[in-house]
Structure formats: C-alpha cells, structure tokens
Design goal:
- The chain is of the alpha/beta class.
- Strands 3-2-1-4-5 form a 5-stranded parallel beta sheet, sandwiched between helices.
- Helices cover 45% and strands 15% of the residues.
- The chain has 6 helices and 5 strands; from the N terminus they run βαβαβαβααβα.
- α2 links the parallel β2 and β3.
C-alpha cells in the first residue's frame, strides 16, 4: 500500500511510519521540520526512517500548495494520514498567523490533494482543545465543540471542513 504521512518527523507521524514500514508499505513522508519542537530530534527520527528503502521523504510545508501538488503529481496514494499542524495553545496567542497557514490552509491543501489523487481514505489528528473548558470528563466525540483559543478553533474548523468536504 502507498501511504502519505504529513508531519512524519513528529511523535505520532514517526511512530506510525515505523509501524507501517514494518508491514512493507511504501511511505511518502513530508514535514517542514519547523523549530516548535526539537529539530535535532526530528532529524534523528528522519535519519532512522530513511534507513528503509520504502521510505521517501520530502521537506515540504503543507501550506505550500504548489510544492505539495508538484511532489505528488504522478504518485498513486491509497491513504493519507495528516499529522502536520502547528501545535500548542500558548503559542497560538503569540503567533496566530502560523496556525492559519499550517492548520487551515495546509489542511485544505491536503484535502484537495486527496481529492485530486482520488485517495481512498484521509485520516487527520484533531485535539481535545476543540472542546474548550469541558465540565465532564472524559470527553467524547459527541460533546459540544467550544474552543477557547486559536489552536482549538483551527482544529474545530478542520473537523467541520473534513465533514463537509
């Protein structure tokens, strides 16, 4: 199976890539390697994944539509796992524009890519931040969405966009 994993050098993307490579899948991976989390750790994960011949990596920011589409233009992808996003609630108060580009524009680019490539399935990561200040725990997917920050709002918009897309 041919799988695209965005945010492949983050914790979830890296762990999933490792697991899927053990099952002989071909992994197309993208990551912008930004410095929100440790860049040396991301590069260490990347070097580990590159040891597998079925791992194909390209440094791409998913908010760059032209670069994303150019790289995947003639590739057949069966499944997309989108883990690329600008994380962190506090940072969203300082630099909200980075959330707009990565979490909204980037996510829509991935959705458009999935549509144009006729991808069978698209999985994406949301966040508990979409619920805001929940009064009851644990929360579940049917709870009212009430984000209290830009990060949570971008994840809520992604959920709505995915349903309507």
């Amino acid at each position: 199976m041919k799988i695209l994993i965005t945010g492949a050098c983050g914790f979830i993307g890296y762990s999933l890539s490792k697991s899927l490579l053990q099952k002989k899948n071909i992994i197309y991976a993208v990551d912008n390697l930004n410095d929100y989390y440790s860049v040396p750790l991301k590069k260490l994960r990347l070097e580990n994944l590159k040891k597998n011949k079925n791992f194909i990596f390209k440094k791409i920011d998913i908010s760059n539509r032209k670069q994303l589409f150019k790289f995947f233009k003639k590739k057949k992808i069966d499944i997309i796992f989108n883990f690329a996003a600008q994380a962190g609630v506090r940072y969203s108060l300082i630099k909200p524009d980075s959330y707009f580009f990565a979490n909204l524009i980037g996510f829509l680019n991935v959705c458009d890519l999935a549509k144009s490539l006729k991808v069978k399935k698209l999985f994406f990561a949301s966040s508990s931040s979409v619920y805001g200040d929940a009064k009851k725990y644990p929360v579940n997917e049917n709870f009212h969405l009430n984000p209290k920050n830009i990060y949570g709002l971008t994840k809520k918009i992604n959920e709505i966009s995915a349903k309507t897309y």
